[in-house]
């Protein structure tokens, strides 16, 4: 199972808590997702599939 270690993702808190002001580094310091894990790859494919469906639906509504 995939677990997030950052409480900001759950609470919607987007302010940087490490003193950096608005830098593009969104990954937490303890980023430890195994990108070679088959479960991670399946999750990525599922997320991409849903995103593509969302984009297609959004495009169909515009036209």
TrEMBL record:
Q: Which InterPro entries is this protein grouped with? A: Calmodulin_Regulator_PCP4-like (IPR052142)
> In the UniProt record, which is one GO cellular component term?
cytoplasm
| Coiled-coil segments on the chain, per record | none
Span of the signal peptide? none
Where does the record place the region Disordered? 1-39
Alphabetically, the GO molecular function entries are: calcium ion binding; calmodulin binding
PANTHER family, per database record: CALMODULIN REGULATOR PROTEIN PCP4, IG-LIKE DOMAIN-CONTAINING PROTEIN
Family note? Belongs to the PCP4 family.
The name this protein carries in UniProt is Purkinje cell protein 4
* Originating species: Xiphophorus couchianus (Monterrey platyfish)
């Amino acid at each position: 199972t995939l677990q997030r270690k950052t409480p900001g993702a759950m609470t919607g808190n987007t302010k940087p808590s490490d003193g950096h002001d608005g830098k593009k580094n969104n990954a937490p310091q303890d980023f430890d997702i195994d990108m070679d894990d088959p479960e991670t790859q399946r999750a990525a494919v599922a997320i991409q599939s849903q995103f593509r469906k969302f984009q297609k639906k959004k495009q169909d509504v515009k036209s």
